[in-house]
Design goal:
Neuraminidase, five-stranded antiparallel sheet, 24 strands, 1% helix
């Protein structure tokens, strides 16, 4: 094991207020890891996009691929994607994960969410059941989205991509493309969803007008926070509220690939503005609030977001529901950061998206 030390270089000329940190490899040799969750005794549960889920020991030893993972439509941006443990995992050993699912008949694929029980020996998944399947299935290898967040009430938020070629679907309520949905752990529609009992709408929908969400978390305010990729610029942080329209593809701070105006501009009545946007794009992925004091008081309460494009880790200071300051960490690291999570030990962990991906810990010196 080796350490790479970093000073916390801030964006612009802002004064560095954080600690010196070291990037510590915990595990290596992972095939395009997409997400990580934390198990008892310091173990990790990781997904690899080609379709494998593994348990990694506290010392970084890779376990074999777990049996019981359903077939995935691996290719392009599709495969085995997010994974989270149930809030009561210590008792029920339940997990939730999402993946790109082939259509049961005909061509096409879409994002699906499954629940399962991790066997006591941590070698297989048991009682696997798909609890949500995105409709309609389409032929695309792009924009599956797929971040899962369990809310304090136990229900699940799932952020779904608009599948790229079906971007106009994000403005329609008869499909799941470009939506955040809210379901129970069994896949039912919980009370309080905004479009329940409205003709022509899908009752799982919580918010709409999203593009390709790659990060989501519950904030200190108890609300859902998420970010999504813009087209060429215009990556956004949003706080999805029930029934609200977040604008894609009608409004955006990005532009068409190759240049040129996209949609109607940056604002329109009845469509929400992002809390924050990045232009040019940093291709954000992974998202976590730091609640611990392991890095000192200056970082506590900050929002951390990884960058696929630059390999940087972005620390955003939040106060009064607004983002006050942004700091770029790990500049020059050069690895695509796919997921960011706070561990039970209060430290930040990341996975890097590469055929030789790594599980990393951000260690305060």
């Amino acid at each position: 094991m080796f350490f790479i030390a970093f000073g916390c270089a801030a964006s612009g000329s802002a004064q560095n207020t954080g600690p010196a940190v070291s990037l510590v490899p915990v595990a290596t040799g992972l095939a395009n890891p997409w997400a990580l969750a934390f198990l008892p005794d310091g173990q990790f549960l990781l997904t690899e996009r080609p379709g494998r889920m593994r348990v990694v020991s506290a010392t970084g030893q890779l376990g074999p691929a777990l049996a019981g993972v359903p077939p995935v439509a691996a290719g392009g941006q599709g495969g085995l994607l997010d994974v989270v443990t149930d809030a009561d995992f210590a008792r029920n050993r339940r997990i939730y994960f999402c993946f790109s699912e082939l259509a049961t008949s005909g061509a096409g694929n879409g994002t699906a969410v499954a629940r399962a029980t991790l066997a006591a020996d941590a070698k297989s998944l048991q009682d696997v059941r798909v609890v949500f399947s995105q409709r309609p299935k389409v032929e695309s290898a792009l924009h599956f989205g797929c971040r899962i967040v369990q809310a304090p009430d136990g229900n699940l938020f799932v952020a779904l991509g608009e599948r790229y070629h079906r971007k106009d679907d994000a403005q329609k309520l008869d499909n799941h493309h470009g939506k955040v949905i809210r379901i129970t752990p069994d896949g039912a529609v919980p009370p309080g969803n905004p479009f329940t009992n409205q003709p022509g709408t899908l009752p799982e929908i919580w918010s709409y007008g999203h593009r390709n969400p790659q990060g989501a978390t519950i904030g200190p305010d108890g609300k859902l926070w998420m970010h999504e990729h813009g087209p060429q610029g215009g990556d956004e942080i949003n706080l999805p509220q029930p029934g609200r329209n977040y604008g894609w593809p009608v409004i955006t701070y990005g532009e068409n690939y190759g240049g040129g105006k996209m949609g109607e501009g940056t604002a329109r009545a009845g469509m929400e503005q992002p809390l924050h946007h990045w232009t040019p794009s940093l291709a954000p992925s992974g998202m976590a609030f730091l609640t611990s004091t392991r890095y000192g008081a200056a970082w506590q309460g900050s929002l951390f977001v990884g960058s696929l494009k630059f390999g940087t880790l972005h620390r955003l200071e939040v106060a009064g529901g607004k983002l006050q300051r942004e700091e770029k960490l790990l500049q020059g690291n050069g690895e695509r950061i796919r997921d960011v999570r706070q561990g039970p030990d209060g430290l930040l962990y990341m996975v890097t998206d590469s055929p030789q991906g790594r599980l990393l810990r951000l260690q305060p010196d």
